[in-house]
């Protein structure tokens, strides 16, 4: 890049000599401004964009490492950054990487023959993608609206997250029991099951949804209680995949937890 | 940028007319190559660099979200990326952000008056920076060498991580007890204390180092046991700051744990 700019600069100098007769005394486009204005502007613009990219990446790291307090929406100045991340290569690279890491771990485990080795999957932003919904709602820029989101859920049109579909196929073929543990309500049980089957998740050993008494509980508590029950039933929770820390933290954690990326929303 | 390139392109075309007599028939620098070669090359180069940046950022996310198995060195293709990250703005932005988040949480806590509220700090890459050492050892590209690292520790020249110094001052002035819990050996107790004092960490309530019987233990186990002891002594572990997940996970976790960035090495 530098060499190109240097070359360009010398060519511009050269050109200005040949153009001098036409423009040298013109006050409309004084020669120094023509040379300097676009470069200075561009440098500042690039610098501001780079600064914003660094700050938004830093924010995203803080989210993924669970360093932030509960947050309701993404920072407005990172709206374009989050959209770029979610719709570009970066999100799918991150998804693939965590799925591959989980798959490698799953393959390394020696399963007992009692059928009690379990892999837990969360549903939203883990097996199913709500990106078509969030694309219409600022990728996390709008405060979460239950009524609107429920309508989207009831359409049953969420696509699969492909890297999770691969992991799901790997762990089922390895002999793990698969439990889907979701914050979705029991009344969305049928449509969720239909949606999952339609996009490739054709079998599961449990699909656990929130009962009416689970609704007031925070996700960490609700999911911990469900994992505690699994342990009481004699299961060993080997792996757990979720996009929220509330899918993974709390009591009865998995031997290995895998945090899928999600900079769009936070569930405590 | 596009406008600059377009302008450059037209100026180059213009120049080529005036330069044609000198170069048109030259086989050393054929004119079309001079115009096309740097642009095509640059696009490919930029695309490769962008791809590498995305992949290495994805790797760094996987590290910070604790998705990777134990790893011994950084990926060789990310060597320049990690160096840029550690020596540029990004690392210090990430440090500042986690420190500010921790400080905000600390201020939100209502401390009891029994002096039993504790904030734990790890030492290496949390209070003290070993960047001068790692700069000489490929920023994580070389396999960790105990002998060489011990020599560095014994110099007692590690600078403070400034954002951690600010957090340390905040939590001490709020009335927290501060416990430094480090994987460093007891035989490095004096030099570690000297180093800490010299760079601004002038007071602590405990400095816990590895005793000979702690040495075979993995860090998660060793640090969990030390936290268990604190709980038995009646302390409440309110906050915990560390650059390794092994500083934060395990038994007797803090109410809030804060993961400082560190893409250079992994301690299980």
From TrEMBL, chains A, B:
Question: Which keywords label this protein?
Answer: Glycoprotein, Signal
Question: May I ask which residue range the UniProt record assigns to the signal sequence?
Answer: 1-20
**Which CDD domains does this one have?**
HAD_VSP
**Would you say which domain of life the source belongs to?**
Eukaryota
The record's Pfam families line, in alphabetical order, gives: Acid_phosphat_B
Q: SUPFAM superfamilies, from UniProt?
A: HAD-like
An annotated Gene Ontology molecular function? acid phosphatase activity
Q: Which family does it belong to?
A: Belongs to the APS1/VSP family.
Question: Known PANTHER family for this protein?
Answer: ACID PHOSPHATASE-LIKE PROTEIN (PTHR31284)
State the name under which the record lists this protein: Acid phosphatase
- What's the source species for this entry? Coffea canephora (Robusta coffee)
Taxonomic lineage from the root? Eukaryota, Viridiplantae, Streptophyta, Embryophyta, Tracheophyta
């Amino acid at each position: 890049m530098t060499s190109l700019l240097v070359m360009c600069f010398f060519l511009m100098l050269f050109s200005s000599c040949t153009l001098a007769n036409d423009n040298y005394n013109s006050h409309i486009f004084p020669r120094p401004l023509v040379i300097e204005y676009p470069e200075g502007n561009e440098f500042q613009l690039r610098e501001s964009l780079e600064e914003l990219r660094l700050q938004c990446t830093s924010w995203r790291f803080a989210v993924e490492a669970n360093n932030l307090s509960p947050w309701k929406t993404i920072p407005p100045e990172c709206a374009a950054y989050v959209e770029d991340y979610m719709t570009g290569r970066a999100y799918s690279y991150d998804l693939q990487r965590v799925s591959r890491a989980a798959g490698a771990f799953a393959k390394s485990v020696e399963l007992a023959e009692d059928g009690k080795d379990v892999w837990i999957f969360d549903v939203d932003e883990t097996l199913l993608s709500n990106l078509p919904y969030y694309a219409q709602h600022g990728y996390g820029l709008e405060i979460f609206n239950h009524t609107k989101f429920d309508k989207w859920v009831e359409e049953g049109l969420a696509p699969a997250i492909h890297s999770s579909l691969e992991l799901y196929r790997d762990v089922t073929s390895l002999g793990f029991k698969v439990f889907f543990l979701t914050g979705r309500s029991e009344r969305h049980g049928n449509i969720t099951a239909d949606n999952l089957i339609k996009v490739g998740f054709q079998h599961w050993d449990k699909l656990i949804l929130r009962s009416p008494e689970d609704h007031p509980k925070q996700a960490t508590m609700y999911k911990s209680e469900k994992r505690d029950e699994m342990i009481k039933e004699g299961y060993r929770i080997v792996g757990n995949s979720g996009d929220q820390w509330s899918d993974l933290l709390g009591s009865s954690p998995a031997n290995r937890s895998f945090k899928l990326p999600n900079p769009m929303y936070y569930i405590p």
